[in-house]
């Protein structure tokens, strides 16, 4: 496995993943290596408008133009993903096609045409994510650029599974607690 094995991939929570933190989440992996992994939850919008905290980013914010709950780690930390024709530099780190991370405390680099802002992130220590994958907690899937900018984040988990075909689409109907069936 290379250092960037899961970078730019989706982690889709499987019904075997218990607890509320990651229930039916879709995570974009931003980094993965020997020290662990880092990603952001793509389908948990909040009620906080991007304009309230980052007015410089508001015009480029993808609808819904709110902060997203990126994960339980450092809930006051901010990660911003930007899209556009941006030259890789210290101000832009590519993740998936024309999407990459930028510093939300600075004006966006030239060429940015869309942003999505996350409060907090999902993180795993060394080998922790690999253990969760071995326990079948996550499905690893290819991400598409529209996944980052979805305008319907609440339905994303089901849509991502359904686009994989019938084998995975049936997971959409698994109840939260299968023992109650």
Describe this structure in words.
This protein is of the alpha+beta class. It has a single domain, classed as VC0467-like, CATH 3.40.1740. Helix content is about 15%, strand content about 35%. The protein is built from six helices and ten strands, in the order E-E-E-E-H-H-E-E-E-E-E-H-E-H-H-H. The chain has helices at about 50-55, 55-60, 130-135, 145-150, 155-160, 165-170, and strands at about 10-15, 25-35, 35-40, 45-50, 65-70, 75-85, 95, 100, 110-125, 140. Strands 1, 2, 3, 4, 5, 6, 7, 8, 9 and 10 form a ten-stranded mixed beta sheet that branches. A hairpin with a 2-residue loop joins strand 2 (about 25-35) and strand 3 (about 35-40).
Beta content comes to 35-45%
Provide the number of structural domains. 1
What is the top-level CATH class?
Alpha Beta
Number of helical runs? 6
What is the arithmetic mean of pLDDT? 91
At the fourth CATH level, what is the homologous superfamily? VC0467-like
- Helical fraction: 10-25%
SS-derived structural category: alpha+beta
CATH topology: VC0467-like
Question: What is the molecular shape?
Answer: globular
Distance between the termini: 39 Å
In CATH, the architecture is 3-Layer(aba) Sandwich
The run of helices and strands is EEEEHHEEEEEHEHHH
Compute the gyration radius: what is it? 16 Å
Low-confidence blocks of residues? none
The count of β-strands is 10
Q: Tell me about the biggest sheet? A: 10 strands, mixed
């Amino acid at each position: 496995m290379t250092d960037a094995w899961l970078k730019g991939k989706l982690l889709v929570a499987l019904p075997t993943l218990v607890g509320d933190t990651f229930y039916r989440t879709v995570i974009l992996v931003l980094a993965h290596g020997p020290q662990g992994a880092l990603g952001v939850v793509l389908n948990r919008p909040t009620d906080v408008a991007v304009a309230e905290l980052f007015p410089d980013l508001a015009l480029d914010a993808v609808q819904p133009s709110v902060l997203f709950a990126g994960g339980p780690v450092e809930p006051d930390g901010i990660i911003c993903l930007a899209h556009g024709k941006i030259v890789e530099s210290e101000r832009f780190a590519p993740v998936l096609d024309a999407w990459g991370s930028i510093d939300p405390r600075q004006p966006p680099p030239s060429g940015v045409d869309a942003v999505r802002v996350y409060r907090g992130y999902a993180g795993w220590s060394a080998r922790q994510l690999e253990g969760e994958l071995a326990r079948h907690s996550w499905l690893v899937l290819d991400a598409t650029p529209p996944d980052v900018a979805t305008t319907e984040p609440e339905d994303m988990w089901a849509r991502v599974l359904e686009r994989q075909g019938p084998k995975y689409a049936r997971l959409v109907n698994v109840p939260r607690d299968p023992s109650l069936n």
